[in-house]
Known about the structure:
Blueprint (H helix, E strand, L loop, with lengths): L4 E2 L5 E5 L12 E7 L7 E9 L12 E6 L2 E7 L13 E5 L5 E6 L9 E9 L1
Antiparallel strand pairs: 1-2, 2-9, 3-8, 4-7, 4-9, 5-6, 5-8
Amino acid sequence: MSSQILLSGGDKYYSYSGEIFGDVSAPATIPMITIDNTGLRDSLIQIQPFYGAEVAAGSGSQIGIIVKLDGVTIIRQQQLGGSLNYDRNEQTNIFAPRNSKLEIIRLNTTSNNTQISGVNVIGYYL
């Protein structure tokens, strides 16, 4: 799923990518969620990435996400390869003005193309 679904109350929306992974020919980035227009009201958006087990845990083997609002990168979050001191599934909150385009993109690495990851989004209209 890559678009938003409005909940029945009309005050929240959600989207989720499902499990995403690449193969040996995967590009450096893979689109996960694209919401072309967040709606007519400003919103607070919770972004919940998730990652499966690392395939390779070297320092150059991190996957992660980029979050863009209207084409501007506002978050670039990558796991630290082999680090046990970092919560890879850390939730992030952002503010999005009305009519924003939200994009969440997976950052890939050669060593971890086949590692599973995904993202869940819920937006609360203000």
